[in-house]
Amino acid sequence: MTKQRATSAMPPLILGVLALVSALEPLSINMYLSGLPQLAGDLDITQAGAQLTLTFFLLGMSLGQLVMGTLSDAVGRRGLFVGGVIVVVAASVLAAVAPTAPVLFLARFLMGLAAGTAVVLARAVAGDLVKGQELARVFSLLMLLGGVAPVIGPVLGGVIVDTAGWRGVFWTLAGLNAIMMIAVILAIPETLPKQRRTGGGAGPLLRAIGTLLRDRAYLGFTLGYIFSFSTMFTYVAASPFLLQDDFGFTPVQYSIIFAVNTTGMFLTSLTNARLVRRLGPLALARTGNLILVAAVAYLLIASFAGAGRWAILAGLFVVVSSMGLNFGNNSALAISRAGTLTGSASAFMGAGQFLIAGLLAPAVAWVVAQGLSQAQGMAVVMAVVALIAAAGVWGGGAVMAREKAGQGN
Prior knowledge:
Blueprint: H1 12-30, H2 36-42, H3 47-75, H4 78-97, H5 101-129, H6 132-146, H7 148-187, H8 202-213, H9 216-246, H10 251-279, H11 281-304, H12 309-321, H13 323-335, H14 342-360, H15 363-369, H16 374-408
C-alpha cells in the first residue's frame, strides 16, 4: 500500500471506511440494549450484572485505545488496524455463542479491546491526513456518516431481540464487523511514515504522555469530550430499564425512542459540519456544552418534581442531540494540540472516555439502590459528569485565549 501524506481534504474512500469503523463501535453498545432484560433472565444475572456486559466492553475499549493508539505512534497504523478488525469479528462470534455470563463478559472485553484499537486508529489516521478546521469538519462528518447506523441499529436490534433473541444481535454484529474488516484491509493505507514515528521502547511513549499531560488546553478539551460522552452514556446504560421497566415501553418502542434521540444527534452533527469552518470549533464546543448543561439541569428538576415520561424523554432528546456539537469539536480541539502525537492523543481521549463510561454503567443502578427512582438516579449522575465536562471545555478555551493574547503582545 502507498503511504499517504497530510492533505487539505480527506480522500472520500478512506472517509467512508473510517465512518464505517466509527459506526460499528456505537452499534456494539446500543444494538443489543433492548435485549438486556432478556439477557439477564437467560443468564440468571441481575440488572447490574447485565450492565456489566457494557462495562467489560468499555474497559476493553479503554485499554485497546490507550495501548494501541500510543503504540501506533511508534510502529505505524495499518498493521495494528488490520489486527484489531480481525479480532473483533472473532470476539463477536464468541459473544453470540456464550453459554454463561463469565464467557459473555470475556467476549465483550475482547470485542471492546479490538474495537478500541480500530476506533483509536481511525481517529489517528484522520489526524495524519488532515489538520485544523478541516479535521473538525472530518470528525463531524464521521459522526454524520457513522450516525446513520446508530439510528437504524436500535430499531433493527429491537426487531432481532423480538424474533431471534439477544444472541441474534451478536450474530448480526459479527457479519457487520466482517464487512468492516474487509473494507479496512482493502482501503486503509499506512498514513504514518517511518520518519514521523516516535521510535520503539517505553521511553518515547512515556515522553509522549508527559508532553500531552503538560498541555492544559489538551487536557481541558479531552475532559470536555470524555465527560460529554459520559453524560450521554449514563442515559445509554439506564435507558433499557427506565424506558421498559419504569415507563412500560416494549423493546421495539424503546428502540424507536433510542433511534429518534440518535437522529437528533445526527442532525446536530450535520449542522456542525456546515458551521465549523465559519464559526470555528471552540465557539461550537462552548455552545454544545451550554445546551448540555441546561438540558441536564432540566432533567434534574423534572425527575425530582415527578414529571411524566414524555417530559423526561424531551430532556433526553436535547441531551443526546447536543452531542453533535460536543463530540466532534472537543475531539478536534484536543487532537489539534498534539502535533505528531495524534495516536497518543487519540488514545488518551478514548481510554478515558470508555474507562469512565464503563464505571458509570452500573453507577445508576447503585444510586437507585439508595432510594431514588431510575429517572432521578440517571439525572443525578448526569449532573455530576456534565459539570466536569463544562469545566474542561471552558478551561481549555481560557488557555487558548491566554495563548492568543500572548501572541498579540
